[in-house]
Write a structure and sequence with these properties.
single chain
Length: about 230
């Protein structure tokens, strides 16, 4: 019985529509990571002392809000516009997608993040790909709590934006999701980075070759990825 069920789930996860969903997640996550990491690199290029300049935090927050709103919108009708492994995890737990489909989503998202960071590394010669760390005065536990709260707020907004009882929200739903992401960065950027997206942390760590942070491992599985905006 179990092999039969697994076989059926596998067939459902490799249909034409499912493959379109994985590709949509790849494209949307690629654009998101490219915009967020790219904006951070551009800010550091223009302001070498970005850590001491509050405008750097605003730039990263605005980039997150705009990029996430846009990428969620373009993929919403195809894949649901997750653009985040933590959102995919929540959707799988809620029974909206199967665990097997979620695994394919994660592969698409992680691969897209790596590709986006690779493109940035190759095209911006001499620029360092930012990696994610926590603020020096923060403990790993404290940063994890902050990121857990931020990720919960993001996922809660995603669920609220897709609530059928609210009717058709159109572009308002993705805008609300982007706005909460930007607000979260503004609230906790100097402390934990307000990352909320394990894919972004994964891609930058892989391309930069800096995988020491244990917080990154925690982030992949639970969405508690840590990113210091001053390092971006």
């Amino acid at each position: 019985m179990a092999p039969t069920v697994l076989s059926e789930r596998l067939k459902q996860s490799v249909t034409k529509d499912a493959l379109r969903s994985y590709f949509a997640e790849f494209i949307s996550t690629f654009f998101y990571v490219f915009a967020v990491v790219g904006s951070s690199m551009a800010s550091r290029k223009l302001m070498p002392e970005m850590a001491a300049n509050p405008s750097g935090l605003v730039i990263v927050a605005v980039a997150n809000a705009f990029a996430l709103s846009s990428t969620v919108y373009i993929a919403a009708n195809i894949s649901g516009g997750h653009v985040n492994p933590a959102v995919t995890f929540a959707k799988a737990v809620g029974g909206h997608i199967s665990v097997l489909t979620a695994l394919f989503y994660w592969v698409s998202q992680m691969l897209a993040s790596v590709m986006a960071c690779l493109v940035l590394k190759v095209t911006t010669v001499g620029q360092v790909i930012p990696t994610y760390t926590i603020a020096q005065e923060m403990t790993g536990f404290g940063a994890s709590i902050l990121e857990a709260v931020l990720t919960f707020a993001l996922v809660y907004t995603v669920y609220a934006a897709g609530d059928p009882k609210r009717g058709a929200l159109g572009s308002i739903g993705p805008l609300a999701i982007g706005m909460i992401a930007g607000a979260n960065v503004l609230a906790t950027g100097p402390f934990s980075g307000g990352s909320m997206n394990p894919a972004s942390a994964f891609g930058s760590a892989i391309v930069a070759g800096k995988f020491q942070e244990p917080s990154s491992v925690l982030g992949w599985s639970l969405g508690w990825s840590h990113g210091c905006w001053t390092c971006l």
